[in-house]
Structure formats: C-alpha cells, structure tokens
C-alpha cells in the first residue's frame, strides 16, 4: 500500500487498528526520503529515530512530519537554510514542535528553505535550491519550498512552514499542496528563528484541507513563552469542517484580477469561481485600492526587522563569522539598516507603518461587505530555476497576492485548483478572511475540494 497517498486520518486509523506499526510507517517514509531527496534537495537533515513516547492513544500517534529548518529542535541540527548556522545544534524545542510531539507525531526531517526565509523560490538556500517535484527544471517556491516539496512527493505526511510574506502559500501553489497562513498570534512563534517578527506566522502544509485542519487544531492556542500569541479560544476545526454557512458571500477584489495574471492562472481561477457558484455561493466585486503599495511597504518593514534580528549572528553570540552570510541576506540587512537610519527613518519606515495601518483598515472595511475573499495565490505557475535570480524586482513581485495578508495580520489558505495547460504545473487560489476566521476558510475550501473530487483530483507528481 502507498501510505503517502493516505490522509492523516486514514493513516491514523491504520495505526489504531494495528494494520501497520509506527516503526513500519517511519521506515516507509525514510525509504522515500533516501530515494527521492537526492534529486529534490527538499530535506536538509533527517532524524535517526522516533523521538516521541509510545502511546497509541495520542491523536497523531505515529504520523511522520517534517518541519521547515527555521524551527529549533533540541539535539537536531537547525540551519535556517544558512551556512552561518550550518553546525548549530539547539538546546531547546520550539513550542510548535513540543505540541506535535506531545500529540504523538514523529519528526522525520528538517526541510530546506531560503536562508533566513529571504526568498520566493528557495534558490537563496545556502545548501542549494529545492527542485519542483512536478518538473525538476522549475522552482518549488519559497521560502518554504522544501516543506511543500516534501509533502507532495510523499516524504512526509505534513509539514510546519513559516509564512512572512507568502512563504507557505507560494510553495503550496507551485507544488499543489494546501497551505495555511494563520491570523498573526494564533500559533506560537517561540523557537522560530525570526525573519520579521511582526509578520512571521507558523502554519501547516498538507495534502488536503482536512489534514491542515487536524494540524491547526494541534498547534493553535496561546503560549506563555510567546508574548505575541493571543488569548483567543480556538475552535475544534475538524468538528466544524463539514458545516456550511448559509448566505455565504465571497468578494473578488478587482485589483487582483488585472493583466498580471498568466492566461492559465486566470482560467483556473474562473473555473474555481464557477465551482462555487454551482453551490449557490454569491460573489461580489470589491476594491482593495492599496494593494499596489503592499510590496513596497512590506520590503521596508521586513528588511528593517531582519536587519535587527540578524544582528545577533555575529560569530560571537551565535553562528559563524558574518562573512558567510549569503547575498540576499546581506542585501536585506543593508536595506533595513538604511531604512532605519536617522536621515531616512521618517521618510521610509514611519511611512511604511502608516501604509500598513491603512491596508489593515481597508481589509476590515471590505469584510463588512463580504465573508471571505477569493484571489489567485500567484500571478504565474512555478518559473524555471534561475529565471528570476538576476531580477530582484520580478522575484519580489511573485508575492504580490500573498504579502497584503501578512501586513494586515489576517488568515489566508492556498488551495490547489489544477494544472496549467502549457507547462502542466500546479496552480492555486487563496481564500482570505478576517482575523480568526480560519474555521470558515477551511469549511469553504473543504467544500471546493469535495466538489472537484477530493484532494487527489490533480494526481501527484511522484508515485
């Protein structure tokens, strides 16, 4: 049996009935890593043995998962995709890892990413780029490229990614996985190597909407070790997944449907809208007029924060000497230092914070008219390796549809909606909602997934 084709619930049921043992599952996925990872470069560090207690009553007992290599794991190398930390062995665990272990999940590997989360293609990893499992000549997206690639290729059942400006959703779109960027503060960032602290979010990547709901239910909630985690009562996402909201209205922001979309993306988005209309869901055109300012504001805010966060890696307190920082990390630190300098602080940083407030207010206003928004995840399917590396602006524009939600702090879910007609590469759409509307977003995505035949509708790139 192909265990990697199962959902989390299906594999958990097999383990519960003792049709397969935890050790057999672990060895099955380890074998897939040994066969597939040399060509994909999705996993940087493998775990050697099962590191959770033997308790078959735990809800995630025996489920193998991977984590983006930006989460500290006690005794397991953690690099953040950078040579600065190539030999770093943490002495404590990230909260998200602790929660998953306590629920019985088994870490099988740490996944490749753009160094420090700086990138949209995982080409900025100091350990080499991740190849897209659908076509090795193309990128897997970034910065959590290894996360999405490991899940869709069946090297892990799910992954914990990190989303600062689209780093969970863009790889999910490019690789055909489901990826959730949560409301800021819904999940703990404790033990996450920070890129931009006011934008970073911890979230799951899975094969199906139900898988993502199961993992979110496990990792969401307040953490006293993270002052930015909110005291918000988290619902049982799996219990409400099959609910249907009456009178649901989905907004279509006209700024997201301009000429920047490739024909294949535009076609798949229209097909997705048609599926929802067949369910009787209403659509309404809305406007988010500040969308075009989001990328500029983001790169002022994010680089300012990363220049501060990376200052500790000076070879004395943490890491190796600063000369081994990659080109993109140096660029972003320089931009951040410039933005925060005395002569430009008001002109750039303060102005960006004001734009951020206005973008959030605009989303709040729109969500008084509609329940959710439906937009493309990316203007294009995956692009070729090396295609945008010498054009930073084009690379940054890959995140034009994902960045606004990070700035506003609201949730967004990327869902696969088919393959492009020309390159046969995956395309995804996003559902956006107001703060703490993850339950409604997951319900609505689940309805779509079932309507098109389930999460295996678009096949998988590797058997």
UniProtKB/TrEMBL annotation:
InterPro entries: Amidase, Amidase_dom, AS_sf, GatA. It catalyses: L-glutamyl-tRNA(Gln) + L-glutamine + ATP + H2O = L-glutaminyl-tRNA(Gln) + L-glutamate + ADP + phosphate + H(+). GO terms for molecular function: ATP binding; glutaminyl-tRNA synthase (glutamine-hydrolyzing) activity; transferase activity. One of its GO terms (biological process) is translation. The keyword DNA-binding does not apply. One of its GO terms (cellular component) is glutamyl-tRNA(Gln) amidotransferase complex. It holds the Pfam family Amidase. The active site is at 68 (charge relay system), 143 (charge relay system), 167 (acyl-ester intermediate). Residues 24-442 form the Amidase domain. Keywords: ATP-binding, Ligase, Nucleotide-binding, Protein biosynthesis, Transferase. Its EC number is 6.3.5.7. Belongs to the amidase family. GatA subfamily. Allows the formation of correctly charged Gln-tRNA(Gln) through the transamidation of misacylated Glu-tRNA(Gln) in organisms which lack glutaminyl-tRNA synthetase. The reaction takes place in the presence of glutamine and ATP through an activated gamma-phospho-Glu-tRNA(Gln). Heterotrimer of A, B and C subunits. This is Glutamyl-tRNA(Gln) amidotransferase subunit A. The lineage of its organism: Bacteria, Candidatus Roizmaniibacteriota. The gene is gatA.
């Amino acid at each position: 049996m192909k265990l990697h084709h199962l959902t989390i619930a299906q594999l958990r049921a097999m383990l519960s009935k003792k049709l397969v043992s935890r050790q057999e599952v672990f060895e099955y996925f380890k074998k897939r890593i040994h066969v597939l990872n040399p060509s994909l470069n999705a996993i940087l560090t493998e775990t050697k043995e099962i590191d959770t207690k033997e308790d078959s009553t735990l809800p995630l007992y025996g489920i193998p998962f991977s984590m983006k290599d930006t989460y500290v794991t006690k005794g397991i190398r953690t690099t953040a995709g950078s040579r600065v930390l190539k030999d770093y062995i943490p002495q404590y665990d990230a909260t998200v890892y602790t929660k998953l272990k306590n629920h019985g999940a088994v870490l099988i590997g740490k996944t490749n990413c753009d160094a420090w989360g700086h990138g949209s293609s995982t080409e900025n990893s100091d350990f080499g780029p991740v190849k897209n499992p659908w076509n090795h000549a193309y990128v897997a997206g970034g910065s959590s490229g290894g996360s999405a690639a490991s899940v869709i290729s069946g090297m892990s059942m799910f992954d914990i990614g990190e989303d600062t400006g689209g780093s969970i959703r863009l790889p999910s779109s490019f690789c055909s996985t489901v990826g959730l960027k949560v409301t800021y503060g819904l999940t703990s960032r404790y033990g996450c190597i920070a890129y931009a602290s006011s934008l970073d979010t911890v979230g799951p990547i899975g094969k199906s909407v139900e898988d993502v709901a199961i993992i979110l239910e496990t990792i969401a909630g307040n953490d006293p070790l993270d002052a930015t985690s909110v005291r918000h009562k988290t619902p049982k996402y799996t219990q409400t997944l099959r609910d249907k909201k009456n009178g649901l209205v989905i907004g279509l922001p006209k700024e997201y449907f301009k000429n920047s979309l490739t024909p294949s993306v535009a076609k798949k988005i229209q097909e997705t809208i048609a599926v929802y209309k067949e369910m009787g869901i209403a659509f309404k055109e809305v406007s988010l007029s500040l969308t075009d300012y989001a990328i500029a504001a983001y790169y002022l805010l994010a680089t300012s924060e990363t220049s501060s966060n990376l200052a500790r890696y000076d070879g004395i307190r943490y890491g190796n000497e600063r000369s081994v920082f990659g080109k993109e990390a140096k660029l972003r630190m320089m931009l951040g230092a410039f933005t925060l300098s005395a002569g430009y602080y008001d002109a750039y940083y303060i102005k960006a914070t004001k734009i951020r407030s206005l973008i959030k207010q605009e989303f709040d206003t729109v969500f008084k008219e509609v329940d959710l928004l439906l937009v493309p995840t990316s203007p294009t399917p995956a692009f070729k390796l090396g295609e945008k590396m010498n054009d930073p602006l084009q690379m940054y524009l890959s995140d034009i549809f994902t960045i606004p939600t990070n700035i506003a702090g609201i949730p967004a879910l990327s869902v696969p909606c088919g393959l492009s007609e020309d390159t046969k590469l995956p395309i995804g759409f996003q559902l956006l909602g107001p703060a703490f509307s993850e339950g409604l977003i997951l319900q609505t995505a689940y309805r779509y997934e079932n309507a098109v035949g389930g999460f295996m509708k678009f096949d998988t790139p590797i058997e």
